Amino acid sequence: MTHSDSKSPDLDWSQVRETVKLLTLSATQVDVIMQEGDSAVDTLTDSFTEIVESMQAMNQHLLALVDSNERELALTCCSKTQEKIQAAIVAFQFYDRMQQCLHHVTSNLRGLSNLVGSPEHLYNPDAWRELQGEIRSRFTMESEKVMFDAILQGKSVDEAIAAKTAFQENESDNIELF
Length: 178
What we know:
Elements: H1 15-64, H2 69-116, H3 119-122, H4 125-138, H5 142-152, H6 157-170
């Protein structure tokens, strides 16, 4: 059975179905960009692996040379390059964290889409609490849970972000492992 849509609504038209379509589109867009990003990051990872191996080999060759100013300058360059590589590895870790967050977002959007698209669950508070519990359980960092809780308490986006930031600032070491 085909349903009417916003372009040609009839008595069967439903804002719920339109909402489900847009939620599904959002989840799909995030999935597609994550897949494209994975390919690019795989290429970068392979390149960095080769660069690290080359730097290690170059460093070994330089250490085998007789002491000279040029040798020391080259070893210093190798050392600086290794520092830059370490900085890039930290950036890769950020990408990994971002990818985890985006995966959670798509899962959440799909769960919300399924709930909204199901007449027996749409008006069922237990189904909403279950979805909210599932969403909260996916968070690996306490600061994310603080932000989630703030939103469920009816706070604005800015207030929720401020609550997350305040929580992070109050942490003793200011580092959260994920």
